[in-house]
């Protein structure tokens, strides 16, 4: 039986993961833990490193715990990992060259990896090997020694000859000697004063070698052969392999992971046994005479081919997300480049991921075949919730719209139909995104619809004929974004022209009497904009339009767009100077929460949480100050019932538990936190959530004196614990008296303050 435990109490009880510096209890990851890059065993427990996090699998109990940027790590894109079970210290290396040191006292972030003068190559950590309190770190310029006690780098050996750097693919330490495999041979050097001088290194064996490990001996490999250090002499195993992925020295065993097969040898080179895994694996180890593999797509696998991993999407690649039916999710994995025109080629060829409320499901349809997919959107049929449509934007044969049927028994999707949209050529009529109107009619936007590729289009799904009917917009704008339906109109950004379109289909799906309203720079869009990218309609009926050069607002949008619409920027004052908010910034996504506040994603700038009018920044999340995997968030969705915010990136998904959920004219479940407020432990503001859309707040002391009053309009309120004179209140019990706008609903709460 497999148990997934992610509570902080359970994590704190573990030897390895008890060191987390919890970023915030409000954050969680929705990462894929399928691709296991490295594993270490600690007394019957396996610690596995994956692309975006680490998980800890207890063989005897089946318990699984995970550690990621959402609860302690500082980065994503892990590229190397090792762990010493004796000292309980782990070292995580990332593609950007940084390191996390995990020990029983916490997690330390190390960013100052030594770089050779004149080296301009990749900073990626290729490999880490720990021996005692030292680790040898392999990078593109050679090797560096890291002191795990001091948490700092020592000597580095830059593998440079004739001005050309040689990468250390992997390296290890045995008996105070460093062994490094490179594309130019096995190189060695004692840890002494001449270690940094590359000319003093010895090339023990010429050749191109990829993997190495040591414990009681050294084993290293090329892609097809393994050599062992036996009686101070390297001996080649008699077996020739297909494509070696990893070599592990584990106690009295040498374990070789060779694509889908794992072989175990004694320290003298005798074959102990082999196991066929049935899929590609990255690494393997032997524990209590049993083989465990780290696979590319299934987490950890044992000899019986049972899998063990935290549940999550199949890959981390993500683009857009839909929330529906009580905690169900659909994630599309596509990507766009070249001004939202081209389809980014992804060698993993992902499709979409479906969370049914209990587990993540990846259609087997995407696991086989040669068809290329670039899925920009997926949506269930609102009148038949077993049918699902997805768009394939790929610039090759097979782009179009697909229909699959969900099989709840098999937890899989079956192919039903492909709609080619009567494409004029293999690169035209590429579908982007879906939207339903208020009569449950399904529409899709189409890029590059005409033979010249100069106009976008809209497509209507005709249920009677089971066809998608295409209507060209007949405008000089080829690319298009996902549409938004509001007040009988489709609101459509056009990313390759300085235009925004509102499409009135007159509630006649045949699209014969439609009317187009175009907003461009003559209506106030930024004159330097090359396209509109995003749109949201807030609770006041205002349209927030994101362009690649800033943000614009259209008040009373549904009515104003039909006359002479004028969009306006938000102007804020900074140090007495008026400035346009997000001027010249690319606005990737806009989302409105239940309190009418705005989440806005800026390409390269993270995510801003703004007040309802946009004039106040409430929060600003970046990859530097939050668990966001990257500063370019491609989609944001708020679960209006719970207030949970989903941030989607090409490097994975994280969620943030917001304070605004299901805001109505009456009170919800009013909650005050933290409570009690102990100054020595907490110096921030007290949050009161579960409020009405407009809440009149009075806070009194025990004697009934009013110490603070306010009006909250966002479903929650933050009190800074100051009285009406601006000074902090004294220790004591305070009463929060609240009424909604018309006084028809009331709520009360207590706050204990300890200074």
UniProtKB/TrEMBL annotation:
Cleaved signal peptide residues: 1-19
InterPro entries: PorZ_N (IPR048954), WD40/YVTN_repeat-like_dom_sf (IPR015943)
Classification via Pfam families: PorZ_N_b_propeller (PF21544)
Entry keyword set: Signal
Domain PorZ N-terminal beta-propeller: 48-201
Keyword field contains Signal: yes
Protein's name according to its UniProt entry: PorZ N-terminal beta-propeller domain-containing protein
Organism from which the protein derives: Chryseobacterium geocarposphaerae
């Amino acid at each position: 039986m497999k148990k997934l435990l992610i509570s902080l109490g359970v994590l704190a009880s573990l030897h390895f993961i008890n060191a987390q510096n919890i970023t915030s209890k409000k954050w969680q990851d929705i990462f894929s833990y399928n691709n296991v890059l490295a594993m270490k065993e600690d007394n019957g427990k396996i610690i596995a490193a994956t692309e975006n996090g680490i998980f800890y699998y207890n063989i005897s109990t089946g318990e699984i715990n995970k550690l990621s940027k959402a609860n302690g790590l500082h980065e994503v894109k892990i590229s190397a990992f090792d762990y010493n079970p004796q000292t309980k210290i782990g070292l995580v290396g990332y593609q950007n060259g940084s390191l996390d040191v995990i020990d029983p006292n916490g997690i330390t972030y190390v960013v100052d990896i030594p770089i050779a003068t004149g080296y301009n190559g990749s900073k990626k950590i290729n490999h880490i090997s720990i021996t005692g309190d030292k680790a040898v770190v392999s990078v593109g310029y050679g090797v560096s020694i890291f002191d795990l006690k001091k948490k700092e780098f020592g000597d580095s050996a830059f593998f440079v000859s004739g001005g050309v750097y040689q990468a250390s693919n992997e390296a290890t330490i045995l008996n105070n000697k460093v062994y490094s495999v490179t594309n130019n041979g096995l190189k060695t050097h004692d840890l002494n004063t001449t270690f940094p001088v590359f000319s003093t290194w010895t090339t023990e064996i010429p050749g191109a070698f990829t993997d190495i490990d040591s414990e009681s001996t050294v084993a290293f490999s090329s892609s097809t052969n393994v050599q062992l250090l036996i009686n101070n002499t390297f001996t080649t195993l008699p077996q020739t392999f297909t494509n070696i992925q990893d070599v592990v020295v584990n106690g009295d065993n040498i374990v070789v992971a060779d694509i889908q097969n794992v072989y175990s040898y004694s320290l003298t080179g005798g074959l102990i046994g082999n196991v066929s895994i049935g899929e590609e694996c990255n690494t393997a180890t032997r524990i209590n005479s049993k083989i465990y593999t780290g696979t590319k797509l299934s987490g950890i696998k044992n000899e019986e081919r049972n899998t063990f991993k935290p549940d999550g999407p199949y890959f981390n690649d993500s683009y857009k997300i839909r929330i529906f039916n009580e905690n169900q999710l659909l994630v599309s994995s596509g990507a766009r480049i070249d001004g939202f025109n081209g389809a980014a080629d992804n060698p993993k060829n992902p499709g979409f991921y479906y969370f049914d409320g209990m587990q993540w499901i990846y259609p087997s349809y995407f696991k086989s075949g040669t068809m290329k997919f670039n899925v920009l959107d997926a949506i269930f049929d609102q009148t038949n919730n077993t049918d699902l449509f997805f768009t394939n934007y790929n610039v090759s044969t097979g782009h179009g719209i697909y229909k699959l049927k969900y099989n709840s028994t098999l937890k899989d999707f079956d192919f039903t139909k492909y709609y080619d949209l009567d494409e004029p050529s293999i690169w035209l009529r590429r579908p982007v995104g879906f939207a339903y109107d208020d009569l449950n009619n399904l529409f899709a936007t189409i890029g590059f619809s005409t033979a010249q590729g100069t106009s976008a289009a809209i497509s209507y799904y005709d249920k009677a004929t089971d066809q998608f009917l295409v209507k060209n917009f007949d405008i000089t704008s080829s690319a298009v974004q996902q549409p938004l339906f509001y007040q009988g109109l489709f609101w459509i950004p056009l990313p390759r022209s300085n235009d925004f379109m509102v499409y009135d289909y007159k509630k006649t799906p045949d699209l014969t009497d439609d009317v187009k309203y175009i907003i461009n720079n003559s209506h106030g869009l930024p004159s330097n904009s090359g396209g509109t990218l995003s749109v949201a309609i807030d609770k006041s009926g205002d349209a927030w339009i994101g362009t690649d050069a800033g943000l614009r607002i259209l008040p009373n949008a549904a009515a104003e767009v039909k006359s002479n619409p004028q969009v306006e920027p938000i102007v804020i004052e900074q140090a007495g100077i008026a400035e346009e908010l997000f001027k010249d910034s690319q606005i990737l996504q806009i989302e409105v929460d239940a309190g009418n506040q705005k989440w806005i994603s800026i390409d390269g700038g993270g995510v801003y949480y703004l007040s309802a009018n946009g004039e106040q920044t409430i929060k600003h999340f970046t990859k530097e100050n939050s668990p966001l995997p990257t500063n370019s968030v491609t989609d944001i969705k708020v679960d209006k019932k719970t207030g949970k915010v989903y941030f989607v990136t090409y490097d994975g998904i994280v969620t943030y538990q917001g304070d605004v959920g299901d805001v109505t004219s009456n009170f919800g479940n009013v909650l005050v936190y933290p409570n009690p407020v102990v100054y020595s432990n907490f110096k921030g503001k007290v949050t009161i959530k579960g409020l009405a859309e407009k809440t009149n707040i009075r806070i009194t002391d025990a004697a009934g004196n009013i110490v603070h009053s306010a009006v909250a309009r966002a479903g929650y309120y933050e009190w800074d614990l100051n009285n009406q004179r601006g000074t902090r209140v004294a220790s004591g019990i305070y009463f929060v008296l609240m009424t909604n706008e018309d006084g028809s609903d009331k709520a009360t709460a207590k706050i204990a303050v300890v200074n």
